[in-house]
């Protein structure tokens, strides 16, 4: 065992003892592809030279490698932990810090290098239980974040991020068993579909919520078949309007209406019909739409909620806003809050995020998680906490 492995083992041993002593629960576990974001405001010509869209996600190829060097040498970038699920887990823990540290756990893969060590340190400081698989074969994954006029192009160079073995996931099964809720995104499909399905099956077997994010338009288009295999396990599905449209087209729903698409996704076949499926579709500055289908009563309800207002001049960077929004939803879900409260948490998290560079948050959290109303679900999560409340706006 190398020195670093020894230190990691010692740290995890201490962390487990702290959790035993303080009886800290793992509320949310995320598993996916950790990246280190390299974020910078760039000039317009960089998009032309590297054939990139101004506001989209494109997997980095060999032709893009000089861009990363240019970012570091010309633009003095900011280095921030990234990767969709890692962003969401960090955001969720920031919101949950007012209740307890180490409420969130994250599983992923990094390289045996300085960037991997940097990620470990940041996650430790964020009070997140982090279970990285460390590989010597590939460098830690990174993501170029090109910012221009409050829009961003994401250029992930995945490296070690997509190298997590199923055996390693199985070796961390105790952490998965201890979690109250499991979350991942479509990005994990191409990394390890076998491990993803193991987690989904575990959630079904133990009646805990399995929550899934559609991830990106090109991912929905490319991996629609695999997402259809995952959907029966999903209790909460999150996506933006563009992703929803691609899903609708792939499923031949023959509609571009967000409310109808949410309803059709909510009513897709589901294994655990004791719990309703909730679908949340975001639209940036436009209202988010949530639809809930109860398989037992065969009833459907929906609600649309306006995002938190913000002066355009205060918008710094929209990168990670969707991940932050998802964090608010997950926190509300796992705490058993009603849909209005869950969307309030989600909107607040997105609002805080877009005023920063990257998916980071200020020292002070302005959103209280205290709730005089008792959760509307049992401890075994058999009913969706997104039950409609009196006063919700139904559509």
- Biggest sheet layout: 9 strands, mixed
Sequence stretches where pLDDT stays below 50 over 5 or more residues? 14-21, 373-395
Number of helices: 14
Given helix and strand content, the structural type is: alpha/beta
Radius of gyration: 20 Å
> Approximately how much helix is present in the residues?
25-40%
The tally of beta strands, per DSSP, is 13
Distance between the termini: 59 Å
Strand residues, percent: 15-25%
Q: What is the chain-wise order of helices and strands?
A: HEEHHEHEHEEEHHEHEHHEHHEEEHH
Strand order of the largest sheet: 5-4-1-8-9-10-11-12-13
Q: How does the overall form come out from the CA principal axes?
A: globular
Average pLDDT for all residues: 88
